[in-house]
Amino acid sequence: MPVKVSLDQTTHLAHTIDITAVGARIGGLRAQMQAGMNVELQRGPRRAKFQIKWISQIGESEVHIGVECVDLQEKFWGVDLADMKADAKKDMDALMTLLGAK
């Protein structure tokens, strides 16, 4: 899914790779970012704030980031993930650990 990533008043076009009820892996970024930074993601008219949990360098100029929601809107991703909320935090932490170890 295409997504806009806003950081320091600059918007970057990117795409989602994986999603959960509390976060996502975002790819196609070519900007300098650091874990712990807050970013705003936009999908169509929906906007939400996320925190970067990890960064993985893919090639010379592309990075993937793992983000966790700070104020996620309901159905931000366009799908109902309500059934996942009970275990979402635990699953997201495990996913971020695995993906961040690359």
Question: How would you portray this structure in words?
Answer:
By secondary structure, this protein is α+β, with helices and mostly antiparallel strands. The protein has a single domain (2-100), classed as predicted glycosyltransferase like domains (Thrombin, subunit H), CATH 2.40.10.220. Helix content is 16%, strand content 49%. Strand 2 and strand 3 (23-29) form a beta hairpin. The chain starts with a strand and ends with a helix.
Structural class: alpha+beta
The percent of residues in helical segments reads 10-25%
Reading off the top of the CATH hierarchy, the class is best stated as Mainly Beta
Anisotropy-based shape:
globular
Q: How many whole angstroms does the radius of gyration measure?
A: 13 Å
H and E string = EEEEEEH
Q: Provide the number of structural domains.
A: 1
Major sheet size, sense and barrel closure: 6 strands, antiparallel, barrel
Regions with little confidence, pLDDT below 50 for 5+ residues: none
Q: What's the name of the CATH homologous superfamily?
A: predicted glycosyltransferase like domains
Termini gap: 23 Å
CATH fold-level name = Thrombin, subunit H
Strand residues, percent: over 45%
**If strands are numbered along the chain, what order do they take across the biggest sheet?**
1-2-3-6-5-4
Q: Provide the CATH architecture.
A: Beta Barrel
Mean pLDDT: 85
Number of strands: 6
